[in-house]
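Memo to structure team: turn this sequence into structure tokens by end of day. - J.P.
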Amino acid sequence: MNHSSTEPNTRQSAASNMQAGAALLSASTITGDEVRNSQNENLGKIQDVMLDTADGKIRYVVLASGGFLGMGDRLFAVPWKALKLDKENHCFRLDVDVERLKNAPGFDKDEWPNMADPTWNSTVESYYDAR
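Reply from structure team:
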């Protein structure tokens, strides 16, 4: 997450910023949050949020996984419906193991897929069982 020079260096996760009962978060608040599976393995961090402008809803988050210091990251479009907010542990949960994520439909940071393509959407949503 980019911070201006006037912002403090510390950053709290969206989960830690959520107030009891609150259901709205800004996209910039969840960018950079960790995504973990049920085994508490770190799957990556949310790099971006993809909005469906026709529905006015979040469609996907772009999950950056692997690499070091932003280099060599593999990106995955994870359907928003597949994620669960874990307020207690200050992260999001995705019910996949590390090996399944490695085999997920991913893409390179310089070659994003056409996320509006219905065939691509169907493939990704089926992979994460998020229809």
